[in-house]
UniProtKB/TrEMBL annotation:
Organism: Congregibacter brevis
Annotated TM spans: 23-47, 190-210, 222-242, 270-293, 329-345
Keyword Metal-binding: no
Keywords from the UniProt entry: Membrane, Transmembrane, Transmembrane helix
Protein name as annotated: VanZ family protein
Length: 357
């Protein structure tokens, strides 16, 4: 083998060794991810503060918008609209002041096509009906007959009365439920200690993996990349309430003056959506971190790919938050875009010269 071939072979072996070394560095984080999912299955996150409120068989308690009909009894709740919507059914609820979450449970008696029904909950706080929390059931965009849903919706301790609303978004549409219960919850003290310890451990493990970037060159790029990673870690670890406050600060938020009568609030359609801005930021932050660190170290793309499931797992330990496959795919999309950009820049001799200085 000639000298040029020997150099290429040695370079390839060195690169392969570095990638294997990176994977070994992430071994502790991978074990953390497995342990986190195991603990989240074994330890209940919430405890019931009071018995569940059954919303069946109370037809007079519901306020209906125009052109929607209801058939409510002890075993079934059904709403239907014969013309294009939106239409909605609302009712007022009260919970203990210390309730931090409300668990909503129901089963479907009919098939529900995507984006035709939304189930929402909003609470009165500081004189306003607040839509800045995570109030839409994430799991319920569509469903099949017989499918059951259960999800805790976060509130702030001290929130006032809540309004529960079922929206028929596109008509004609209908929804039939075999049960509909809401239960006030508080955080399990055992889970609180567990999640605080695991959240700290997860962040420490990620920092240890990435600490070898400190001192790498070009320093300005590495500094920008590590600051972006800190932004990612901060974003995945903030509470729902703080996330909502940030959203309100950036967008103006969404709320309704609650000094109106309760009947007027019940006749008000809740806005849909929210937090889409943060999904966009997922891609931007991962793209930026991969771009800056990728110009300093060729294996940065691997670190950022593995950082995505690690940060999603950390959200298991943030009250009201949770991991999402879609968010992780968005993260990886941002990484892919950055890898392409770094590849193009590294082909420039001028850029390579600057990076080697």
């Amino acid at each position: 083998m000639n000298s040029a071939g020997t150099v290429v072979a040695e370079t390839n072996m060195l690169s392969e060794f570095r990638y294997h070394q990176r994977l070994l560095r992430w071994l502790g984080v991978m074990l953390f991810i497995v342990s986190a999912w195991t603990l989240s299955t074994l330890i209940p996150s919430y405890l019931a503060l009071a018995p569940a409120q059954t919303l069946s068989g109370q037809s007079l308690a519901w306020s209906l918008s125009q052109s929607i009909t209801a058939d409510l009894d002890d075993d079934r709740l059904q709403w239907a609209a014969e013309r294009p919507g939106p239409h909605w059914a609302s009712r007022a609820l009260s919970f203990p002041a210390e309730a931090e979450f409300v668990r909503v449970e129901f089963c479907l008696n009919n098939d529900v096509p995507p984006e035709t029904v939304a189930i929402l909950l909003a609470s009165v706080r500081d004189g306003r009906l607040d839509f800045n929390r995570q109030y839409r059931l994430n799991s319920f965009y569509s469903g099949a007959r017989g499918e059951c849903f259960k999800e805790p919706i976060p509130r702030r301790a001290g929130d006032g009365p809540a309004i529960f609303q079922i929206q028929l978004i596109n008509g004609p549409a209908s929804i039939s439920l075999s049960s509909l219960d809401v239960t006030p919850l508080e955080e399990n003290p055992v889970w609180r200690l567990t999640r605080m310890g695991m959240l700290t451990l997860g962040i420490v493990l990620v920092v240890l993996v990435l600490k070898d970037y400190v001192g790498a060159r070009p320093r300005i790029l590495v500094f920008a990349g590590l600051m972006t990673v800190l932004g990612i870690l901060f974003g995945c670890c903030v509470s729902v309430s703080l996330k909502a406050d940030i959203y309100e600060l950036l967008t103006g938020g969404r709320s309704i003056d609650a000094r109106y009568s309760m009947q007027a609030l019940l006749q008000t359609q809740f806005p849909l959506g929210g937090f889409s801005l943060f999904t966009f930021m997922h891609a931007v932050l991962f793209c930026a971190a991969t771009f800056f660190l990728g110009l300093a170290r060729r294996y940065a793309w691997m670190d950022m790919l593995l950082l995505a499931p690690a940060t999603e797992t950390l959200q298991l330990f943030v009250p009201g938050r949770g991991p999402g496959t879609r968010d992780m795919l968005v993260d990886w999309f941002g990484v892919a875009v950055a890898v392409f950009l770094v590849f193009l820049l590294r082909r420039s001799q001028r850029v390579r010269a600057l990076l080697e200085d």
